[in-house]
Design goal:
Blueprint (H helix, E strand, L loop, with lengths): L3 E4 L5 H16 L5 H13 L5 E7 L2 E13 L4 E11 L8 H16 L2 E6 L6 H9 L16
Parallel strand pairs: 4-5
Antiparallel strand pairs: 1-2, 2-3, 3-4
Helix pairs in contact: 1-2
Amino acid sequence: MSLNIRRATERDAASIADFNSRMAWETEHKRLDPDVVGRGVSRVFGDSAKGFYLVAESAGEVVGQLMITFEWSDWRDGWFWWIQSVYVREDQRRSGVFRSLYEATIQLAKSEQNVVGLRLYVERDNTRAQRTYEQLGMRNADYLVQEIMLT
């Protein structure tokens, strides 16, 4: 399978929003409000400080995606890129789509010269994804993520 990895554009927004909704259902059994997800995706394209998306195309169709957001580290005087909104279309899984997106992300991060690392969070019960990330060299960072939802 031939893949083209590229930065997403606004014309990809509907596919990205759809993939985000599918991911939320598959990994957490959460139904997302399509209007809210659509607005959230669109805002990324309107403000590069929020992040960017990479997509994987096969035969002209988007088959996978990830989003990068940014965290400044004063300890390391550089940026961590957070990998978020990872989704590979079900019929394309286990065929190297995520690996290609991940490797493109690493190359892009290295070219920036001020990115000190990549991070992601994964659902505690999503052992399949955890194995994939570990096979690509990622390790448990020994941090717990805590949150308070305001909306």
